[in-house]
């Protein structure tokens, strides 16, 4: 499993996973042209898994869907793909709307591209925020960052819920590598000890 990281708007991370039987993209806050350059080298079926529905994570979703990608998002955030609730308008971003192809639920295991992907519903940053466990890695979107966590002052945010979600993550395998929606990687063990949510 090879992971390529592209940096998008608001310094968001787009993760492109070259898996045995296809491509998995986790979030897409990067301009489509940059993602397309990577996909042209792979020529495999593409699945787009969105951790939540903010502009810096869904920016290229419609374009990817138009080029054959299957778009997944939790029902709690689905409307952000086709309404202005994606939080982009305040800074002048215009996003092309699309309807998701599929949704996922808490505890669901997706078998995509030869990988087993476990879905954890982790509300707090948004109602439909999710994390994905793939082998020895966890993709946390804007729920968990390196020594930080997602803001809760936007539409759908809830501090008590994100705190509960984070403490749930801290009970996972301490060696899991954290690939977050922004910034550098970490581990669950490091965040359990050093994340400021412990004091908030």
Would you kindly provide a written description of the structure presented here, covering whatever features stand out?
With 200 residues, the protein is of the alpha+beta class. It has one domain: Ribonuclease Z/Hydroxyacylglutathione hydrolase-like (Metallo-beta-lactamase, Chain A). The protein is built from five helices and 13 strands. The strands form three sheets. It has a six-stranded mixed sheet. Strands 1-2-3-4-5 form a five-stranded mixed sheet. The chain has a two-stranded antiparallel ribbon with strand order 10-11. The mean pLDDT is 94.
Element layout with pairings:
Layout: E1 2-7, E2 13-19, E3 22-26, H1 32-39, E4 46-49, H2 55-58, H3 61-66, E5 70-72, E6 109-112, E7 115-121, E8 130-134, E9 137-141, E10 144-145, E11 148-149, H4 159-170, E12 177-180, E13 186-187, H5 188-194
Parallel strand pairs: 3-4, 4-5, 9-12
Antiparallel strand pairs: 1-2, 2-3, 6-7, 7-8, 8-9, 10-11, 12-13
Characteristic key phrases:
5 helices; 13 strands; alpha+beta; 6-stranded mixed beta sheet; Metallo-beta-lactamase, Chain A; about 200 residues; 5-stranded mixed beta sheet; globular
Distance between the termini: 36 Å
CATH class identity: Alpha Beta
Number of strands: 13
Q: CATH topology, anyone? A: Metallo-beta-lactamase, Chain A
List the domain count as a whole number: 1
For the largest beta-sheet, the strand count, sense and barrel status come to: 6 strands, mixed
Strand order of the largest sheet: 6-7-8-9-12-13
Q: How big a fraction of the residues is strand?
A: 25-35%
Radius of gyration: 15 Å
What is the name of the CATH architecture? 4-Layer Sandwich
Given the structure, what is the number of helices?
Answer: 5
What's the helical proportion of residues?
A: 10-25%
